[in-house]
Design goal:
The protein is of the alpha+beta class. The protein has helices at 3-10, 56-65, 91-105, 117-126, 138-145; strands spanning 16-19, 26-31, 37-44, 47-53, 69-71, 80-84. The protein has a domain at 3-105: Aspartate Aminotransferase, domain 1. It starts with a helix and ends in a 10-residue tail after the last helix.
Length: 155
């Protein structure tokens, strides 16, 4: 895989874009929503390299499994690996590593909090609701009977 093919593969990931913050020679593939980089592509000692984010245990495992996976150049060595292309890392494994790096930096989706019956009951009890529907006051009834806004009414 050459540099252009690697960049093109990274661009297939959702919201990925190509950036050159350090000028030509260092391509950073970023996520459009949070601007975080997931693949730093550069040449070093005549070889094409890419820095990819990993979880610490995975980073260590990959360094032991492949001679061309080393601690990343100019990055946190615990969380980033450098992969020299054209070596002993198969193309499919490289693509998996790129996808994993992307997954680690992409914005997290927040789950909506859902109330269970137990927590709902706790909150209702805390605020003094006895489980019965309250009676409407005359003022509440008057408010509910008000004509909708925008209609001509006599007050």
């Amino acid at each position: 895989m050459n540099e252009r093919e690697l960049i093109d593969y990274c661009l297939t990931l959702p919201d990925a874009y190509e950036d050159y913050p350090f000028g030509e020679g260092w391509c950073v593939m970023r996520h459009r929503k949070n601007k975080k980089g997931f693949a730093h592509i550069y040449e070093r000692y005549g070889g094409l390299c890419v820095n990819l984010k990993c979880e610490p245990l995975e980073a260590d495992f990959l360094r032991q499994a492949f001679a061309d996976v080393t601690p990343a150049y100019h990055m946190n060595k615990t969380h980033w690996n450098a992969v020299t292309l054209g070596g002993d890392v198969p193309e499919e494994e490289l693509k998996r590593m790129v996808g994993r790096s992307y997954d680690l930096i992409k914005p997290k989706t927040r789950k909506a909090k859902t109330l269970t019956n137990k927590t709902l009951a706790k909150y209702l009890k805390e605020y003094g609701w006895d489980g019965k529907t309250p009676e409407l006051t005359d003022e509440d009834k008057e408010w509910l009977d008000m004509p909708s806004v925008g209609k001509e009414t006599e007050w």
